[in-house]
Amino acid sequence: MSERQENIFRSCTEPVNIHTSKVYDSCRDKDCMEDLRVYLTRSCQAIIDRAINVKVRSAQLLWVYIDVEPVSFNRGFYTVDVKYFYRITADAFCGVGRPQEVCGLATFDKRVILFGSEGNAKIFSSKMTASGIDEQLLMRSNMPTAVVEAVEPIALDIKLVEACNCPCGTGNECCDIPSAICGFFDDELVTSDGENRLYVTLGQFSIIRLERDTQLVMPAYDFYMPKKECSFSGDDSPCSIFEHIEFPVDEFFPPVRTTESNCGCSNGPACDPCAAGANGLGASIQNNINNCANHEGKKGFHK
């Protein structure tokens, strides 16, 4: 144990052994997924077949499938295969009428290699049952567990392509769709070719990590006792509650732009039309004030 660790343990009440998940390796990624085919529902495919233009509305991450396998040539490392499932919503323009909403499924696959250490212990446990036979839980192991954290994707672009002009390698790749994914759509998803296809471009931020259950020694200072008291204001009258709400000044007088902000120009206020307009207005007002002051001064001098 190092000197720093010894000093920490001396300052705490006692060292405590805890069971938790330890992160052995992790990575972050920013994926730009171009030309993902959108598998539409049957009714939406009929709309797209006669559409002349489309506009993407939103993209929603539905589910992530994860598979972890050991790397045979490098012990302690594992491949993490990730498959993202997205619900794509777009507006289809079929003529002079209003656009019609269409939705479909898009998928994306990626693979990363992370360090998860070695070891494959079998773990047996039970759940206590008072005055009875304890329930025996299923056997598990301490093999690494993959965790994927992802935010909602950013819909960057969508395009309408005729089936004969589709990009290479984007045929019927999504033939076996899980039933849980199909439940997010109100109609059957069509994987066969139609007259037109949709291809979407998404941006995805994600963090992937490998965890293992382990035991760690942590410094414990004391038990935590909440200092905030539980209060209930049900007896207060509505007017007394309303009295504690501050007047919403910003709703009546929206905040002005600060002097430090600009309109995206990195060369300063000289090339910033917004700043120039604001400065020009301020300079005009200041010039008028100075002219009035000079005029009053001259009148006083002639007197």
Polypeptide structure, described:
It is a single chain. The chain is of the alpha+beta class. It has a domain of 175 residues. Helix content is 20%, strand content 42%. The chain has six helices and eleven strands. Strands 1, 2, 3, 4, 9, 10 and 11 form a seven-stranded antiparallel sheet that branches. It has a two-stranded antiparallel sheet with strand order 5-8. It is extended and about 75 Å long. 14% of the residues are buried.
Short description:
This protein has 303 residues and is an alpha+beta fold. Helices cover 20% and strands 42% of the residues.
Question: How much β-strand is present in the residues?
Answer: 35-45%
Backbone structural class:
alpha+beta
Low-confidence stretches: 273-280
Helix content bin: 10-25%
Task: Please state the oligomeric state of the protein chains shown.
Answer: single chain
Provide key terms for this protein.
alpha+beta, extended, 7-stranded antiparallel sheet, 303 residues
